[in-house]
Specification:
The structure is a homodimer.
Chain A: H1 5-20, H2 37-52, E1 56-59, E2 65-68, E3 79-84, H3 97-112, E4 121-126, H4 139-145, H5 163-169, E5 189-195, H6 200-204, E6 208-214, E7 216-225, E8 229-230, H7 242-255, E9 264-273, E10 279-280, E11 283-292, H8 295-315, E12 319-328, E13 331-332, H9 335-346, E14 354-357, H10 362-366, E15 371-377, H11 393-412
Parallel strand pairs in A: 3-4, 3-5, 5-15, 6-14
Antiparallel strand pairs in A: 1-2, 2-4, 6-13, 6-15, 7-11, 7-12, 8-10, 9-11
């Protein structure tokens, strides 16, 4: 039986997920970080798929890829849909790319129908949401909104390269960053589809969910300075071991959310110096990732934890420095967009559930600029940031159908802004 | 006033310590690891200094440098003196090189006197005592004794290079390793001078000390396997965090010697995967360094600790693997050599103290082959394996005088072996 055009869209979506999942700087595993050669390869693939879908593809200075629907009938405000295409280290292939590729496939589907959009529609693939390389997230979506903080240009990666130097090697004048007109304006809408990265949809036996908002999050860079020395001679009372201090702090971070099932606290990254078997560690750096459904809860949790860490360092006569790198307030997704999503999802599954995201997403950053909405797709065992991350083909098929319906609905009935324009 | 030849020997000794202290693969700090370019540079410098001192210098396949006193009057057994010239990461300039350079200066001094040795005298500079690169110590001195374990040839450094591949790149046939006649035989003596790397001599206000023996030591490589996942979503009850498990274990290692002032237990090296801020750590590796004055005490301490770590891993539902990489039994220095050292030291300071070394040294390995003895030189604050490691010029001057006296005494009155030859 011959493949229908609709079936071909779905097959290409599955193929593209697999293809992007092979573009990695490490094997085995999937690792694709900002301003890498692998991101350039992925960028060219995404541009070619956008072109095949009838979009006009381009890439901006930050490696963001944008595909614009060339519709003569369309009038602002615009609808932007998409997600990011960078990954964490040793990642899965759905976190980010699924939202980008679903959005391309949604446009392909609508174009097959001969749909003529009323509003400009852009598919976005953001260059850095995870913040692996420069320890700062949402670089792509903030640039897209004109809210990119140019101080981050001087962040330095593990190899000692600043973001600025890498961008300038690519021929860009970093002094003029953020001076153009951003693609996303305050009257626009941004819609993101993403894997859930948590266990809720699986527990409820649902393919899709509507996101009501995104938890507040902060990242804290901790430096502990003790004193290195010979492991075989230095007695315990003369030691100022930075790693045993860090160990006690890591357990305090874990304990900080034991009584709050909606909060999260994680030490994911650690560096130890000099990191030699027979030398007492003289300095340790680690990163704390904190999440809380509301900003006030996050702030309280952070202050309590930092006081506790300060006590530990003082008791162990090590120096303790905590730098709050980034704090993002919690957001609420636009109620009209939530309604449109609920209506679309109800067509494709028995029930609709709406919940807060513990994970941060580009929509969190973009909500500072315009109204946003998000759809979650179930993932196996709630597992993400791991090579075993998995979404079933059936769930992806349902997600595409709902995503097409959502995009059509919002384009046809573009919601009136909740606040009057200035 | 013109410099005397004796003053020139001392000045050259100080200059050489400074010069070797600049040959580093990293700046700032001093790092010189096995089979590196910097070790080749240091090797050539040491050979030239040996030649200037009237020694016949050569370098073996392992990068060990040997300077032989060309004395026609000398008859076996031989006396070997020296230490190592590799360093830890971010090291001080005295740990190792001081013993090598004191030994070259001792020969220079004796030759100035017109001394004619009764026994062959070799000055040795060993290529790898610290074991930084391939996580296995005493590579140089074991090769020198013919006890090098060729299984270590397949150890791999952080860049993925095996020791074998690096030696073969240098043109050596690694299949024939250990088949020649070793330089050190069972009837010989080995004498090592070294900084104390501990606080005892400073507390007693003495420049030098006699070493009675060296503590037993072992290195254990621990791997903890949990499960990676998204830091923002995974609830505490679903986490199998390898880093919080490691943190609890690191505190258990520290606690394991809190009640034993003569033992030491240290986690100096740790690696975390995937080591990304927003990913729950899925795997952690770390190294435990254990020391105890006697082998039986070490074994008991190790077993108790490993049981404790096993409990922690089980409670946290992570997998735990412990590999004992290397165990070196405690040794006792030869009593005749201790006497000769005590006699020499008594000429240069008010009192003589004798104590066990908590740090391992080449003498520990060489004691498996022949009788050994060690002299310690005071270091500031007991600090070692650190850029601030320091020995005063006055202490070094006293050390040289005592080292010359010890060498002359043992050459004149070569001690009868305590055990009959086979």
């Amino acid at each position: 039986m011959k493949e229908t055009p609709q079936q071909a869209v779905l097959r290409k979506l599955f193929d593209r997920i697999e293809t992007l999942g092979t573009i990695s700087s490490d094997t085995p595993g999937l690792t694709r970080v900002f301003l890498s050669k692998e991101m350039d390869i992925a960028s060219r693939l995404i541009q070619s798929w956008m072109s095949n879908a009838g979009l006009i593809a381009s890439v901006d200075r930050m490696q963001n890829v944008v595909g614009s629907w060339p519709a003569e009938t369309a009038h602002p405000p615009a609808i932007h849909i998409g997600s990011h295409y960078d990954t964490v280290i040793n990642a899965g292939k759905y976190d980010g790319p699924l939202g980008v590729l679903l959005s391309i496939a949604a446009v392909e589907t609508l174009r097959l129908e001969g749909y003529e959009p009323k509003h400009p529609i852009n598919v976005a693939a953001f260059c850095d949401e995870e913040g692996v390389r420069f320890r700062s997230t949402f670089l792509g979506s903030s640039f897209f909104c004109g809210t990119f903080d140019t101080r981050f240009l001087d962040n330095v990666d593990d190899a000692g390269n600043s973001m600025r130097s890498l961008l300038e090697l690519r021929g860009f004048d970093t002094s003029s960053f953020n001076q153009g007109t951003p693609l996303i304006g305050k009257d626009d809408l941004f819609l993101e589809a993403h894997i859930e990265q948590g266990p809720i949809l699986e527990r409820l036996n649902l393919s899709l969910g509507v996101v009501s908002g995104i938890a507040a999050q902060t990242r804290i860079h901790v430096t502990i300075t003790g004193e290195s020395g010979h492991a075989g001679t230095t007695p315990l009372d003369l030691r100022r071991d930075a790693l045993t201090t860090a160990a006690e702090m890591i357990l305090a971070v874990e304990a900080s959310f034991a009584d709050n099932p909606n909060a999260r606290a994680t030490v994911g990254q650690i560096k130890n110096y000099p990191n030699a078997t027979n030398a007492i560690p003289g300095e340790v750096e680690f990163m704390i990732d904190l999440r809380n459904p509301v900003t006030a809860g996050l702030n309280q949790m952070r202050d309590t934890l930092l006081n506790k860490l300060d006590e530990i360092a003082a008791r162990r006569t090590t120096e303790f420095k905590a730098e709050i790198l980034q704090t993002v307030d919690s957001i609420t997704c636009d109620s009209n967009v939530q309604q449109a999503l609920s209506k679309a999802l109800a067509k494709h599954q028995e029930r609709v559930t709406t919940f807060t995201s513990g994970a941060g997403h580009d929509a969190l950053k973009i909500a500072q600029t315009c109204r946003t909405g998000m759809m979650f797709v179930r993932c196996r065992n709630g597992l993400s940031h791991h090579p075993d991350e998995y979404c079933s083909p059936k769930d992806i098929e349902v997600a595409l159908a709902a995503w097409v319906d959502t995009l059509r609905e919002l384009d046809q009935n573009f919601p009136t802004p909740e606040k009057a324009n200035a």
